Amino acid sequence: MSHTAHIPSHRKPRRSSSKLALRAGVAGGVLSTIAVAAATGSANAEPVTETIEMPTLTSDLSAAVAQSAEATQQVALDLELQAREDAAAAKAAKTAKVAKAEADRKAEAKKKAEAKKRAEAEATERASRSSERTTLSAPTSNATGSAATVVAFLKAQLGDAYVMGGTGPNSWDCSGLVQAAFKTVGVDLPRVSEDQSVAGTQVGTSNLKVGDILYWGGAGSAYHVGVYIGDGKYLDAANPGKGVVIQDLSGYPASGAVRVL
């Protein structure tokens, strides 16, 4: 064994004879083709030209470009539509706000007008009531001192309501009104008609003075009272239908009278 046998060779491996033959055949064919072409070219003497075509856009790419343009246009249209819708909504909200403000203003004006109307009606009613009292109190008397004070108080209550058990200030029954009138001059009378009919000196109905207490029914069992104000008239809280009024004794003669002043 050689001392260099273990050292690997650095030579390239030889190609196989079959591969070399194939390559030789190909090369020979190419050379033959070139030779024929050269001979033909020499015979015809015509130059050889080659046309190179530039690549063109495919149909798919064209469609993609068109679709992109269409999408961009649609986005623009959508944005414009949204802007119009927003503007319309803002305008509608503003119109609604103005309409509400106008409705509120009209409602407030109506409320004020109704309040004014009620106030005017109340004022008219008060004026009418005052006029009625003045008319009803037309009869005059020669009352002086305490009697005049009693009569003035009674006339101030004209037109007030009659309410059973009422003692004022705006509703009375017959004895409640008489009691309140005489209290203004320091005379404390009993609360009910029966007791008021015997609270003073008995006098005949033909000899009445202003301020005398008239009663209907028997003394001590009277069912109604009033106060004589002169000129054949008396003032009393008559009944629920009349209230506090001035009446003529001739129409409803009293049973008797007592004098406490």
What does this structure look like?
The structure is a single chain. This protein has 261 residues and is an alpha+beta fold. The chain folds into 2 domains: 72-136; 140-259, endopeptidase fold (from Nostoc punctiforme). It contains 5 helices and 8 strands; from the N terminus they run H-H-H-E-E-H-H-E-E-E-E-E-E. It has helices at 17-44, 59-136, 145-156, 174-183, 193-196, and strands spanning 161-162, 171-172, 201-203, 213-216, 224-230, 233-237, 244-248, 256-259. The strands form 2 sheets. Strands 3-8-4-5-6-7 form a 6-stranded antiparallel beta sheet. A two-stranded parallel sheet has the order 1-2. Strand 5 and strand 6 form a beta hairpin. Helix 3 (145-156) crosses helix 4 (174-183).
Structural class: alpha+beta
Helix proportion range: 40-55%
Radius of gyration: 66 Å
Please count the beta strands (DSSP E, at least 2 residues each): 8
The N- to C-terminal Cα distance equals 180 Å
Overall tally of structural domains = 2
Overall pLDDT, averaged?
Answer: 80
Largest sheet: 6 strands, antiparallel
The portion of residues forming beta strands comes to 5-15%
Q: How many helices?
A: 5
Shape: rod-shaped
Summarize the helices and strands and which ones pair or pack.
Blueprint (H helix, E strand, L loop, with lengths): L16 H28 L14 H78 L8 H12 L4 E2 L8 E2 L1 H10 L9 H4 L4 E3 L9 E4 L7 E7 L2 E5 L6 E5 L7 E4 L2
Parallel strand pairs: 1-2
Antiparallel strand pairs: 3-8, 4-5, 4-8, 5-6, 6-7
Helix pairs in contact: 3-4
